[in-house]
Specification:
VC0802-like; 2 domains; binds aspartic acid; eight-stranded mixed β-sheet; four-stranded antiparallel β-sheet; binds magnesium ion; Carbamate kinase
Amino acid sequence: MSLIVQKFGGTSVADPERIMNVAKRVAKTYDQGNDVVVILSAMAGVTDGLIAMARKVSESPDNRELDVLLATGEQTTCALLAMNLKSMNYPAQSLMGHQVEVMTDHCFGNARILDIKADRIRELLEKRHIVVVAGFQGCDPDGNITTLGRGGSDTSAVAIAAAVKADVCEIYTDVDGIYTADPNICPKARKLDTISYDEMLNMASLGAKVLQIRSVGFAKKYKIPVHVRSSFSEEEGTMVVDENSGMERLVVSGVTHDTNQARITLKKVPDQPGVAAKIFSPMASAGIVVDMIIQNTRAEGQTDLTFTVPRNDFKKALKLQKEVAADIGAEEVFGDQNIAKISVIGVGMKDHSGVASTMFAALANENINITMISTSEIRISCVIEEKYAELAVRVLHTAFGLDTRE
Ligand code: ASP
Ligand code: MG
């Protein structure tokens, strides 16, 4: 017998029929003798619909009232599921975020969980009840309803799993697991049986569509095994686990591409202490997240400095850097928005050599030019021209032996 947290996303509870399917699945897990806590999202499209409605009555809806409104999406699905389970003669009860005491900060629309008491969940489990909890919502220290940001019910699920010390947190969604690459551009991508928390965090561009990335941070901190699987089949999905839990350590377990970046270069920057600080402080003040940074030393006491920023922030960053360049006496500033960052990720890299050279050779074979490189313990990233992004993913997928074998 285990304590299992099961989270169902919007497509899994999109209409009353699907909610009845969820009830059957939950009941089956319960009948096998497990304790079950269910976390639900709103029906697919409902959160978007509520936001659209708010915009009809107000140009910029008040943040506090918007959270009151958005929380109703999850309230609806929870009530319907608990009702359905009760009509099937199962002891079930719905609870909203504040009843579970999901305590968050004051940041309406993107609140962070500070603590979860979960006493009522524990009391109900003692009585062998199925507990149905509204995801995505919490409550600030003043008792206001808060929401956790889009996709936040994943984070609710993992955080509640940690609070009640669940054996596993199952995330039921409309895909059957985490893939080695985006199957839309890499037809030979395959589903992974296991992936480590750190790999998952690094695969944000692949995984974020499946799991709110904040939830993975929680899972890692509290060592909660997360099972990402389809609510439309019985098949096992992907287990997101601690890398020391005996999982298979692939040298590369995923290839990701990110076409949301842009590059900025400052040419002939005086090579003096304090210059980098002058370049990056205005970025930090403007809230622009700088990703890769490369500095080259030229002769004559000058350097070139290149870095990447999110494409949305490109114009703002370029303008700021023109001011910085004038201030520090750099010769020129230029940028490029047509870039892509391609990464290979795998915990097995820690004890393998030659991963970088395999990556560079595979790209060279296709005549793809690399303009920036960065590495971490479990990731190598290259910046290339955007038009080669999809080709690069496919050739790297093959080069690292990830293709499906049929
Ligand atoms: N209903 C919320 C959203 O659409 C939260 C969630 O589904 O995770 O973002
Ligand atoms: Mg989601």
